[in-house]
Design a protein that fits this description.
With about 325 residues, the protein is α/β, with parallel strands linked by helices. The protein has two domains: about 1-140 and about 305-330, Alpha-Beta Complex (Quinone Oxidoreductase, Chain A, domain 1); about 155-280, Rossmann fold. The chain has ten helices and 17 strands. The protein has helices spanning about 45-50, 100-105, 145, 155-165, 180-190, 200-210, 240-245, 270, 285-300, 315-320, and strands at about 1-5, 15-20, 30-40, 65-75, 85-90, 90-95, 115, 125-130, 135, 170-175, 195-200, 215, 225-230, 245-255, 275-280, 305-310, 330. The strands form four sheets. Strands 3, 4, 5, 8, 9, 16 and 17 form a seven-stranded mixed β-sheet that branches. Helix 4 (about 155-165) packs across helix 5 and helix 4 (about 155-165) crosses helix 9. The N and C termini lie close together (about 10 Å).
Length: about 325
């Protein structure tokens, strides 16, 4: 089969990904082998390729927004899935189930957790494996290409909304407007929030306007109203101070990325006083995934996707790094 591996993490323009041919994987106990139908291109893949996230597995195949078809069912996985089932593979791949975090329903904080496309090979390939306990049933009514971004961009957007704790009818600010943000904005609006978008990209501003944002401004510009909550999707620490300054009393800023550049010094009175909060977002639980996919099944989410062949995976990551598309890129083998 064809696949891409991160051979030498480094700047994406320097070619850290290497295309190769290898054997179709065999399932371990409790695993499924899946033929990849589509795989989203996530900024986390870029962080793995460039080395912003430290290497967990040398030569890993990236990709964790996988829509696929089960082709082999491993021993112990027979009760849940059958050959021909359409399944999703997301970022979270394993948790211990025994630590204090797992036992209290916070498996996203499990210190023994493992992740698709970081600890184990992912979806930049024609075939991949997934533990059946972490494979996801998919909502109907979406194409394979449109479903793929739901499996990370959508799930993380959902988790970020939970962490931002937008009050009923509240005002939400979104900083950065890529794959996850354009899904989260639609979820927030469906829940009754007023959405204000701050982004530097003119095409992203057009998309935000088309999706019904109450206001659209530059990345660090103040919104026209004070915000009850905000989510920072752009991995840019310099946006933390203006996002905090835009919050009303008691406002919450959730930082959605797995990687963030350094945050400048904060002024306590301007940025944190009056019970403003900063919260990080760390991965997701399987419950988050199930709740979000149920939401996507009930509410039609508009996905802006750009297709690339598997042979163009390196180009897709380069285009992501340079902001050459809005929405989400998807590899279609």
């Amino acid at each position: 089969m064809r696949c891409w591996r991160v051979r030498r993490p480094g700047p994406i323009d320097g070619g850290p990904l290497h295309a190769e041919r290898t054997s179709v994987p065999e399932p371990g106990p409790g695993e499924l082998v899946v033929r990849v139908l589509a795989c989203g291109v996530c900024r986390t893949d870029l962080h793995v390729a460039e080395g912003d996230l430290p290497v967990h597995r040398a030569g890993v195949v990236p990709g964790h927004e996988v829509v696929g078809e089960v082709v082999t069912v491993g021993q112990g996985a027979e009760e849940g899935f059958a050959v021909g089932d359409r399944v999703g593979i997301a970022w979270l791949r394993h948790t211990c189930g025994e630590c204090k975090f797992c036992l209290r329903g916070a498996e996203n904080l499990c210190p023994h957790s493992a992740y698709t496309g970081w600890d184990a090979d992912g979806g930049y390939a024609e075939f991949t494996c997934v533990p059946a306990a972490y494979a996801l049933r998919l909502p109907a009514g979406y194409s394979d290409a449109d479903t793929a971004p739901l499996l990370c961009a959508g799930i993380i957007g959902y988790r970020a909304l939970l962490r931002a704790a937008v009050p009923p009818g509240g005002r939400l600010g979104i900083y950065g407007f890529g794959g996850s943000a354009h899904i989260a904005a639609q979820m927030a609006a469906a829940q009754g929030a007023q959405v204000h978008v701050m982004t530097r990209d003119p095409a992203a501003r057009e998309l935000a306007t088309a999706l019904g944002a109450a206001s659209v401004r530059g990345a660090a510009d103040p919104p026209p109203v004070l915000l009850d909550s905000a989510i920072l999707f752009a991995p840019v620490g310099e946006l933390v101070p203006p996002a905090l300054a835009a919050l009303d009393r008691g406002g919450i800023l959730a930082i959605a990325g797995i990687h963030l550049s350094d945050i400048p010094a904060l002024n306590y009175q301007r940025h944190l006083f009056q019970e403003r909060e900063i919260r990080s977002v760390t991965a997701n639980t399987r419950a988050d995934a199930l709740e979000f996919l149920a939401f996507a099944d009930e509410h039609r989410i508009h996905l802006t996707t750009h297709g690339y062949s598997l042979d163009m995976a390196d180009r897709a990551l380069i285009d992501l790094a340079h902001g050459r598309f809005t929405g989400a890129a998807v590899l279609v083998p």
